[in-house]
Amino acid sequence: MTAVHLSGLSRRHGRWHDLDALVDAGAADAAAVTRLRRGGLARYAVHDGPATGLYADCLGETLDRTGLAPSAVDGVLFFSSTFSAYEDHADLAALCARFGIRDAFPLGMYLGQCTNFSSALTVAQGLAATQDLDNVLLIGVDVLDDRRAARVLPGEVSVFSDTAVCCLVSRARTDGYLVERVEHRYRPELHALHPQRDLLPYIDGFTGALAGVVEGLTKATGRAPDAYAKLVLANHARPVLRNFAATLGIPFDRVPTEGIGTLGHCFAYDQLITLGDLAEQGGTTPGDAVLAIGVGANYLYSATSFVRCEA
């Protein structure tokens, strides 16, 4: 498999609000806010303007961080759960033109929801292997339309924060994180199950899919779950993350939880943001293996093995 490395992560968020603003906006009642706080949540971000500004800033920062010239960009992979083909169709082209990125293969991904990050990594790795692309930029943005979707996740496990990220996936570099392996398991039959109303069959399906995707990763890498220095998860309530860790047999003290209170749930970007923070803040050292788990809409499961490399 072609070796690719992840580096240069940048991020932007909307304007930060205390959780009490959910009550003022009619997005939650006081009891729901209390449950969110009990799980470790404290604030969320809302972006009121066009999303273009968010990811334009991110792209510029990633190019600066990596020192990559626009002419060296071979592919641009845009991923989002809230993308609208009617409103945003030309955004990526305008962004590339603004930065002088020409002849880079453009691609969009939308179906994975909160596993869009691992789906994007899979595709970027495939582009490197089959299309001879050295440098692929990943650009993700999600701005929730509160008139059409709930800001608070079912069961008050988290609250969405409007976010954009950008990073580089490259086969020409050896810094950042080696993307050792990405595994996915698609269980479309689980789409009809509600986490509260169908609790027992939901738990059975969830744990089975999670165990299956991690087992596939273990077979591919030869690394058992407890051999990972960190388990990186979405920014859901702490009890939810404890359940993930317990299911995988990984001590909870290996799960970074700072993002729960400071960021909320940044759609498919929590895991990438946490990886970047760990590298910048000394939470990982060269040689450390990191396991990132994603669950998209309760039916697409991913497990990704990263290895921290020298800067």
UniProtKB/TrEMBL annotation:
Domain Beta-ketoacyl-[acyl-carrier-protein] synthase III C-terminal: 222-304
Keyword match Magnesium: no
Any GO MF annotation of the entry: acyltransferase activity, transferring groups other than amino-acyl groups
Keywords for the protein's UniProt record, in alphabetical order: Transferase
Cross-referenced Pfam families: ACP_syn_III_C
InterPro entries in the record: ACP_syn_III_C (IPR013747), Thiolase-like (IPR016039)
Gene3D superfamilies: 3.40.47.10
Name of the protein in its database record: 3-oxoacyl-[acyl-carrier-protein] synthase III family protein
Protein species of origin: Streptomyces venezuelae (strain ATCC 10712 / CBS 650.69 / DSM 40230 / JCM 4526 / NBRC 13096 / PD 04745)
